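Researcher: I'd like a candidate sequence for this fold, 351 residues long. If you have to choose between options at a position, lean toward the conservative one.
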């Protein structure tokens, strides 16, 4: 087809002008449509590039975690020194460094003499004092201003938790010192390793932990131990309590007798109704040869007492920069065994 040249001088009709404008609008419309579809393709390409197997999500991981609002503490062994040993009644002041306990002893014997005898046996008396060292048990806890702000935000009792931990630490050392002493710090021995009681210890007649051991044998051993307290003191003292190692307790006392259907402990209590029986983990391996220990004793501060001149105490917070430090203290002389004849040790076979 041949195009005819347009004559510029030729008149332009209204129709041709309208047609030109329509053509122009159609062109720009197509161009807009093309641009719009191009933008859609770019969006689609970005959308297609997203990976649905990634960890991206609208939900935070923390939002799917259930946090327990109640507070729980870790489980620790019971501290039983204060329950097993009588509380001291010595009235030791907190400022004392030592405690001296005088004990009067008598020497000499009377004899039968004839009337008019001039040479009579003389009786003398003297004091044999025993000295115990008073020692300081200490710990501290601390926190910063930011720690307090964080605790307030979370609603956690920061100071109470730290103070509880510090007290637990001091009481744990007190419990150990009461049982075993602290020889390196001047407290030679404790409730479970007194020198006189250790020298006079006796052995059990059978292995209590064996299933084949008859409960009557165990009852007989305990009876022998109770009688020893009475005999060695010349009937001055009489046992009221028996404490044994936790390991021995769990393997013997908790055992159910095959024929009678009762625990060994219940049979023992029936045999000795006036005696209080307890267990203490401090006695597990304190004896020689790592044999569990059984102690019979008269629970009386005149026999053995736990001396605590100063109970657990928290000093005012010490401020340094943004940190607060709270020193804590407790003073003790340990377990003071004043009358060792009021106690008796037995080494139980097994464990």
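Model: Candidate sequence:
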């Amino acid at each position: 087809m041949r195009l005819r040249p347009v004559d510029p001088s030729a008149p332009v009709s209204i129709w041709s002008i309208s047609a030109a404008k329509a053509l122009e609008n159609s062109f720009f419309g197509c161009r807009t449509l093309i641009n719009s579809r191009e933008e859609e393709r770019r969006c689609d390409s970005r959308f297609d590039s997203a990976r649905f197997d990634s960890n991206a999500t609208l939900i935070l991981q923390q939002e799917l975690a259930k946090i327990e609002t109640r507070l729980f503490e870790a489980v620790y062994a019971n501290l039983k020194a204060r329950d097993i040993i009588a509380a001291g009644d010595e009235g030791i002041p907190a400022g004392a460094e030592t405690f001296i306990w005088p004990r009067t002893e008598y020497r000499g014997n009377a004899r039968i003499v004839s009337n008019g005898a001039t040479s009579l046996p003389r009786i003398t008396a003297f004091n044999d004092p025993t000295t115990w060292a008073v020692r300081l048990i200490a710990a501290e806890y601390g926190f910063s201003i930011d720690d307090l702000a964080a605790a307030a935000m979370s609603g956690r009792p920061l100071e109470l938790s730290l103070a509880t931990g510090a007290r637990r630490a001091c009481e744990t050392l007190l419990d150990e010192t009461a049982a075993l002493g602290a020889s390196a710090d001047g407290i030679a021995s404790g409730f479970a390793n007194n020198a006189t009681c250790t020298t006079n210890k006796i052995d059990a007649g059978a292995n209590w932990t064996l299933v084949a051991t008859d409960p009557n044998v165990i009852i007989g051993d305990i009876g022998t131990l109770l009688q020893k307290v009475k005999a060695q003191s010349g009937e001055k003292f009489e046992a009221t309590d028996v404490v044994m190692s936790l390991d021995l307790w769990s393997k013997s006392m908790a055992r159910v007798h095959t024929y009678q259907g009762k625990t060994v402990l219940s049979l023992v209590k029936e045999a000795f109704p006036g005696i209080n029986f307890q267990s203490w983990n401090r006695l597990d391996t304190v004896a020689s040869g790592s044999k569990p220990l059984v102690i019979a004793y008269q629970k009386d501060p005149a026999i053995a007492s736990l001396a605590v001149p100063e109970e657990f105490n928290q000093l005012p917070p010490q401020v340094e920069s943004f940190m607060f430090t709270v020193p804590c203290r407790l003073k003790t002389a340990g377990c003071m065994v004043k009358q060792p004849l009021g106690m008796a040790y037995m080494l139980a076979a097994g464990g």
